Amino acid sequence: MIGRNRRIAMEYAPDLSNPYISRVDGGTIEAVRKLGVDVVSSGDLIQLYEAALDDEQLQMHLDAERVTTTSFDLAWRFIADRTRNGGTVRETEVQAAILDHFEKNDLTTYSPPNVSVGPHSGDPHYEPGAGGDGVIREGDFVLIDLWGKLKKPRSIYSDLTRVGFVGSTVPEKYEAIFRIVADSRDAAVACVREAYAAGRPLQSFEVDDAARSVIQQAGYESHFTHRTGHSIGQEVHGNGAHMDNLETHEERLVLPRTCFSIEPGIYFEEFGIRSEINVFIDARKVVHVTGGLQQAVVPIRS
What we know:
By secondary structure, this protein is an alpha+beta fold. It has helices spanning 26-33, 43-50, 55-83, 91-104, 172-198, 204-217, and strands at 7-10, 38-41, 89-90, 107-108, 114-117, 135-136, 141-150, 158-166, 231-232, 259-262, 265-267, 272-274, 277-281, 287-290, 298-300.
């Protein structure tokens, strides 16, 4: 099979630099190398058929995005109505309202959305559950992270996060942190656009560095505790390159026709703020943001 070829791509990452693509056992690597073959990573090759979207899949992603976007509008109204005049609503009730909206619009998801109030929003991996979920009331900060795809074969997820405050005026402490997070998000998008405009190959860790540097300069580096983004495909965490230089040193290229999230965040014990968008690069190498850019914390007027 190898013939005269002396360079073979395999599911391999030098020094286990990326566990997501390092799947070939060490013995096989050793055996191939004994044949005088140079083994290189197949990470970018795999992206071409695992992560690159065709036109139909892009349209399904955009259709899913319209439903996920309107889910936020529904959730903010639901919270506003339930918390008016001293009322309350539980995280799981908001979660159920979003899932009902998904069902009415033929969207499916592998797990329910995260609705996180106050300190729960400070945990980027928080998941509300019956009996242990929080109560939302006037004066609370709320983070909603939701993801869904059409109930069709080969459909592509939309995955977005937005934040709001239950009241007519958002306190400055939330707005100040949101502005830093939004600047970090926008710096990551600019990194992608500038590289493509210059015709320069872009490795995914560079996108993470661009976002992380903004938060670092603001003095909150220790409060940004996860990678900047992940591949998006038929699974919400796809098989393409992740925007990561924290959990792994992601050297895979940011390729045309791939979709990924950009979602920097700053987290405290009292609250946490994340802004998540989706980015798609088309075949002409034009960079698109899907899901829109939240520009400020939403005042959930109650």
